[in-house]
Amino acid sequence: PTPDPATGAAVKAADRAHVFHSWSAQDLIDPLAVAGAEGSYFWDYDGNRYLDFTSGLVFTNIGYQHPEVVAAIQEQAAKMTTFAPAFAVEARSEAARLIAERTPGDLDKIFFTNAGADAVEHATRMARLHTGRPKVLSAYRSYHGGTQQAVNLTGDPRRWPSDSGSAGVVHFWAPFLYRSRFYAETEEQECARALEHLETTIAFEGPGTIAAVILETIPGTAGIMIPPPGYLAGVREICDRHGIVFILDEVMAGFGRTGEWFAADLSGVVPDLMTFAKGVNSGYVPLGGVAISPEIADTFATRPYPGGLTYSGHPLACGAAVATLDVMAREGIVENAKHLGETVLGPTLATFAERHPSVGEVRGTGMFWALELVKDRETREPLVPYNASAATNAPMAAFAAAAKKNGLWPFINMNRTHVVPPCNITEPELKEGLAALDAALTTADEFTTS
Ligand code: PLP
């Protein structure tokens, strides 16, 4: 398409005048005006094109504007754009069937929400009503969404301004060997000590007061920390022993991101409730939900579930999910994520760790990777402080600017860059992005002290 800077300027001006942006000081941001997107790329009105290593906010698992999904949305719009949630409609029934077919174990009932945060709200509500207990345990280094309960469950600084202190949330440490809270030197030690810590937290909080433990199967925004072997199974066992509902949040890790349909498939652990959103339809139309075990569904068999949404199971969003799941299966998109993760992305990032002094650790699976950027590989001091201010974030800002100059849009969170491209990225595209990332890391290297 022919770039049109004048349109871009108008788009930007209206944005600055009227759009109030998420998580931002409104006068300190400078949003790029985006003219279009296709596949793994997007472009602005000034002729700059970017390879998207962020998948939006880690949701475009099938890339932008997949023609078959766009056509299916158009068809669904022509057939039935919307309908109230109390009715049985084809797109909703079919989406629920296809999702239930893929979810782990016996999670066969689907409650649809508009996105991830409200899926977390409803999962925790279900757990509290099912158990009759008030508290929910969640991990530091986690993100569960921006609504009141979900942000209180979140274990990062985005929670602080909204902390109500009375939401019945207790935080604990999940395993993360690179920055171990347990003085562990091996995955085995980290796993055993993290499980002992959870067990002790439960004992001191009172097992009979705890409705649920919620964990991201693989924490996403907080740093893509794959739990050590045995950890999720251990949490499952602890929850079973105390009658606690185990909720896995697969909003970011689900639907192909890890090279499996769900991250839970990597460990074989089946939760009681599983939240999803994002990749279910690649965010083409907002959709999220909770997959529910028979036992919890039973609680609401004859007793009404006290919760709902006007747009629960919105036909247009569900139609997009049906088409997305269909395309993912037909094009082998989950397999692509696994294959390129194993053969290109993982091995190439490992060479960055060898060559770039700023790369402290590389970790991930499928199309779900994080690079921990550090000042010093010995001390593991982060390249920027935890929750850095604009004044202390200069090294990460310089790294991001270098990547963008090379045509790569990077995902940045604190001292990390996450490599989370669309799951259907091609090998040449992936290699192009990795070359740009490699070059940008030399900028990060300049801020190291070792
Ligand atoms: N849970 C996890 C693991 C997430 O990564 C996110 C969003 O990034 C959410 C919940 C919240 O989802 P949403 O922004 O769709 O409300």
Automatic annotation (TrEMBL):
It comes from the Bacteria. Belongs to the class-III pyridoxal-phosphate-dependent aminotransferase family. This is Aspartate aminotransferase family protein. It holds the Pfam family Aminotran_3. GO terms for cellular component: cytosol. Keywords: Aminotransferase, Pyridoxal phosphate, Transferase. SUPFAM superfamilies: PLP-dependent transferases (SSF53383). The keyword Cell membrane does not apply. The keyword Transferase applies. Gene3D superfamilies: Aspartate Aminotransferase, domain 1, Type I PLP-dependent aspartate aminotransferase-like (Major domain). CDD domains: OAT_like. One of its GO terms (molecular function) is pyridoxal phosphate binding. PROSITE patterns: AA_TRANSFER_CLASS_3.
